[in-house]
Design goal:
Layout (H helix, E strand, L loop, with lengths): L22 H19 L5 E10 L6 E9 L5 E13 L3 H14 L2 H9 L2 H13 L5 H19 L3 H13 L4 E15 L5 E8 L4 E10 L11 E10 L15 E4 L11 E3 L1
Amino acid sequence: MGRFTFHTSSHRWHVDYPKGDRLMRQLWVLVSLAGLVLTVAIPASAQVVSLGTLRAIDPKDAAAVTVECEKSADGSQMTCGFVHVKVSRVKTPEAARAELENNLKQQPFEATTKAVCGNEKDFAAQYRDLAASPRVGENQKAFVSQAMQRMRAFCAKPSPQTLREFSWFMLSKETRTCKIRTSSWRETFIQNASRVWVSNRGPAGTCGVINVSTLEERPMDPNAKTKGPSWIFEAQKILTTKTGACGQADEEGKVRYAIAGVNPTFGCEFMEF
């Protein structure tokens, strides 16, 4: 008998550590704390320019970047430290639906029924262990409890429809899970004639990647709650070699971040680091 799987992160009951509905609020706290770390790293005698936390302008890009800069003595250069935090769904609903249909086609109904219902007692024992663990969040416990109920319903009356319902419940968890990715780096910017700070790095690597970034200071908005200049950070990756393996690489368009960027509202129930 082949091994039964839904190809999801939860089939083996791996433990997630959910943060509940306050996920997005905690994300921006994380970004702010990262900014504090950058501030500490800059010598007290340096001329510090704090850009604060800038959010992505594109609502499809749930990301933010915290920026702290240090100007050179003559004011011609500015070296900045960046901490970038990006949030995305583990799987889109469209991708999950396509995976569900593929799984149902490839896994025979009889073999699947035997694999699931034949291991019901083992799954129940694993659930009891999870329910008793202090390391498992309430969202995860609730999910496993509902999964067990759906599995029992399927095993009580096996049919293609009840299998589809149970399979979708298991797979859809990844559409309600957010993954968080962070990165940090430093760049040195030079001010051009239009008073925009520009960083140009590369080409580098086998694909000849060029990274172009700009920092533009905007005048203070008299109606803004926070008094002070606002900044726009723009970044772009360009591939100078697009043949062979480089032809399969992702070429990013421009991404823009600003104080007035978008706060993401994914409403995810689980979190994955």
